[in-house]
Amino acid sequence: MKFVRSLRQRDAAAFEALVRAFLPRVRRMAMQYFQSPFEQEDAVQEAFTHLYAHLDSVDPLRAESLPGWVVTSARNRILDLARQKRPTAPLELTDELVGEEEGKGLEVVVNAELSAVMGHFEEKLKPAYRPYFHAVFIDGRDWEEARIALGLSRLRTKYLKSVLLKLLQRHGPLLDVLGRERSA
Amino acid sequence: MSHVTSTIDDVLTGRVLSADDDARFRAHLRECAACKGHYDRSAAVLRLARGGPDSLAPGEAQRMEVRALRLARPIPGTMSFPWRLVFAAAAVTAAVVLTVSAWPRSPVGRVLAAGVGFRLDGAPAGKDAVVFARSELVTEKEDAAVLLEGARGRRGLLLRPNTRLSAASAEEVQLEAGRVRVQVKKAGDPFAVRADEVHVVQPGAGTFVVERRPEGTLVAVHQGSVLVSAGREQVEVKEGQETELTAGHLAPVRPASANALIEDRGDGTVWDAILRFLSQLIDVIAKALAGD
Predict the structure, then answer these.
(1) Best residue in A36, A78, A164, A180 to probe B by mutation, most B CBs within 10 Å?
(2) pLDDT tens digits for B37-89?
(3) For the whole model, what pTM was predicted?
């Protein structure tokens, strides 16, 4: 109840908690309707902008309805955007949970191939680049988190990030997987 | 607005833009298919590298969170008319000063090996130090090896003792004093060395040296060829040849003298010990060019 009241008053901490809690679901919804990562990020931003603008419509007496309200409002906004982008394409209202299950067979194949590709990529890396690569791409740390964990200077990290991104952008086997994944 | 490829790479590797810059950046991407394509490809590659097409790329969640959380920031109060103008003018002035004095520089390469006295932007530096655009590199009594790396091409530079050189970019350097040997293994974008009035352009693979001397500037080619221009004069210098700018004119191309290509050919006598050391640095450059 108190949380919903804080949200209605546009309390920054409450909204931050809401964003952190629902970002993965809103992102999944955006991925269902947009292929381009840039457009997905735009759609996520638009969805949260829409939620923020309509926070006063959350019923303070029905706190349990908040998750449903967030998901439905975000999905409607994303659908509107998708329709604006592709007015002629038929777009169906689907539960985003269904989207989570779709394409799992392909994903398993892609993941096995990717593991091999990335393993080979790491092997070919200069030893000096490997720890940072491993921390970010294998251990799943954020860029900055990995820098702190490895005790690297900001300057060195800037260089490592630039080199790793360029190497990945040019890595033929990874681009092959990307090409197949896009055409699938 | 020109393409924002480097900003895209910065953003995807964790740089947080200010709200205004972010809005301008994303507005540009909505209009520019090339930049949006680069963003999408790079983001997709980072997601794949994290384990799959739906994986979160490093920094992706933080980027979306920052943008969403900005919605909840308090809106700054507006000011009355004269103060707003005064502050706007001050902000513009500060922005101009900051832009000129602290424009962020992008990395263009790194130091492969350096001896005592080597300085990068005025500070002592050693192996693996990052060379940024507009960095100044200075050697004292010992040589240094540097790799410059651009989007299309790698160049290995051997800076001889008492050399001062600034790296305008990964594709161009300015030799202020001393001697530099440039080696390119695979053809990419042309590489240029400016030295006083001389402009040397290497269009493909090869090795050449440029040396500033009291009497003029020498250019000699060990492998490949370079175009040398000074004012309206231009000559092509091919393998085993040299030219020199003296008294404002380029000398006719001639066979390289014994000392012109000392790093690669030597003279078979007193230089042997020095050449052994130089060949080690040249090996370091060759390995870096090959990506080892």
Answers:
(1) A36
(2) 999 999 999 999 988 888 899 999 888 888 888 877 643 433 434 555 667 77
(3) 0.52
User: Is A178 in contact with B29 (Cβ distance < 8 A)?
Assistant: no
ipTM: 0.86
Which residues share a beta bridge with B172? B192
| B98 assigned to some structural domain | no
Distance CA(A151)–CA(A74), nearest Å, equals: 40
* Residue B131 included in any domain: yes
Domain of B60?
Answer: 5-76
Last residue of a domain, one of B60, B76, B92: B76
- Looking at the structure, give the CATH architecture of the domain made up of residues A2-98: Orthogonal Bundle (1.10)
Q: Are B125 and B119 in contact (CB under 8 A)?
A: yes
**B117 phi and psi angles, rounded to 5 deg:** 95, -5
d(CA B244, CA B289): 28
**Per CATH, domain A103-183 is 1.10.10:** yes
> Are B45 and A168 a contacting pair at CB < 8 A?
yes
Which residue, chain included where needed, has tokens 């790296």? B167
Q: Do A159 and B65 touch (CB under 8 A)?
A: no
Of A126, A143, A177, the CB nearest to B48: A177
Burial B119-156 (b: 16+ CB within 10 A, else e): bbeeeebeeebbbbbebebbbeebbbbbbbbbeebbbb
Instruction: Parse chain A into domains and list their residue ranges.
Output: 2-98, 103-183
Q: Do residues A82 and A65 make contact, with C-beta atoms less than 8 angstroms apart?
A: no
Q: Does B132 lie in the same domain as B240?
A: yes
